[in-house]
Amino acid sequence: MGLKGRYDVVIVGSGPAGAGAAKALSGSGLETLIVERDKLPRYKMCSGILFPSSRKFVTDHFGEIPSEILCSPERTKGNRVFATIDSPVMDVPFSVFDEGEDLEEEGFNTWRSDLDFWLCSQTDADLVGNCRFDDFEKEGQEYVVTLRHSGAKTSVRTKYLIGADGTLSRVRRTAFPGFEKSVGLVPNYEEIYEGEIDLEPGWLYLFMDRSLTGYFATVFHKDGKIVVVTGVQQRESVKEYFAAFRTHLEEKHGLAVKETAFRHGIVLNDMSAKENYCLGSDTLLLAGEAGGFLRGGEGITSSLISGKAAGEAVLESARSGKPAVEHFQDLASEEIEVCKRVNTRLTEAMGFNVFIRE
Ligand SMILES: Cc1cc2nc3c(=O)[nH]c(=O)nc-3n(C[C@H](O)[C@H](O)[C@H](O)COP(=O)(O)OP(=O)(O)OC[C@H]3O[C@@H](n4cnc5c(N)ncnc54)[C@H](O)[C@@H]3O)c2cc1C
Question: How do the residues of the chain divide into helix, strand and coil, expressed in percent and rounded to 5?
Fold first, then answer.
């Protein structure tokens, strides 16, 4: 899809925050563009579990979730937690950390590439992949947004700019360079295997022992493959912890790798855990992880909800003439409270904050 020279709203990022914002703007008549750095549908390292609250949000706002975007096993029954290397496994239902009314018990298992592409496709925004946001300048009431589209530099003009570009948000770093000093990172690394493991599919396995992870480590199944992930504190080596975790799985849980299909790395930020949100200013808004929204380690719901709040704030601002960020602060305040409650509950249950482990 080609780019027009001018939009009412430009959304950077085609994850759940971008999709939530675009959905809220759909039908309003405001011309909306979503730009995505990667080729679509893009891979996103994530367990890809639509927790019960995400399932409900998606069904309520985007419609019935099609089976084509689910992977096998289609349902995830809950968490299975190994608190230490020696402790027995504990079943922890999603409901313990997942807030909301009328929720199902089980989560849905998805590849994020399929989920996020489908979510964005359910909006009436123009969706352009291979299109990286680089920079912006304010000219009068408009932003001139510099993009790199299929390798070529170009620009578009817009009244509202929504940064939904994830943990390391370039929109946030461009608009608020000083803020970055307050952001801590949690590196994560995954390998996806063909092989065997003595852990029943259909659960999200969490390993908390400090010798295996500086955050938490997970194992889950997708389309017959075994996904192994660990995270660490910023000062630590994620590859070293990953090696220890893999050895533990081989020795204690019968992991036998036939082939490594993929390797990926990603970072989370600690903004939500430290209640250090960055919502934007004037007509520039930051939603999802770019703004700091995360419920413990679960982010799809929070990104969808804060994205929707950003889209609604734009609509309110267009009506009221007030800065969109003032409406966004009101509309996102409930989700900030939910993030706080979930983070507190997680910290109390674990006895430590997973984002700041000694
Ligand atoms: C290991 C791991 C497992 C997780 N498991 C779960 C889980 O099972 N369930 C759950 O609910 N949450 C999970 N999360 C959290 C969840 O993945 C995130 O919270 C969620 O994806 C955040 O959504 P977002 O829309 O804010 O950002 P993202 O989903 O990260 O989307 C941001 C998008 O912006 C694009 N982008 C970035 N920079 C630019 C740029 N300059 N120009 C254009 N586009 C750009 C990126 O390519 C990306 O597509 C997990 C996180 C990790 C790290």
Answer: 30, 30, 35
